[in-house]
Amino acid sequence: MTQYEYIKMAESVLKIAVSKQVKVDDVCHLQMYEDFIRLKAEGLKVTYIVDYLCEQYGVPVATIYRVVKRMSRKI
After folding, report:
1. How many angstroms separate the CA atoms of 36 and 12, rounded?
2. Is the pLDDT of residue 24 over 90?
3. Which domain holds residue 72?
4. Distance, CA of 13 to CA of 27 (rounded, Å)
5. Element (H, E) at 64
6. Considering its fold, how many domains does the chain have in total?
């Protein structure tokens, strides 16, 4: 399968994502965001959650805050 064929197959979903300004790259951060939501629901403070996720996923603090902000945005 070529890149063209793959994009053509998912064209409608990708067009919606682009129109809603959804970063398709965020698919890589789905598990991290799910962990954030779970830990927050357990009552942990955001600072502790972010520190834990930094160690767990090997990403900078700023990345976690940006991902959480994007994923929490209403579209």
Report:
1. 29
2. no
3. 24-75
4. 13
5. helix 61-72
6. 1
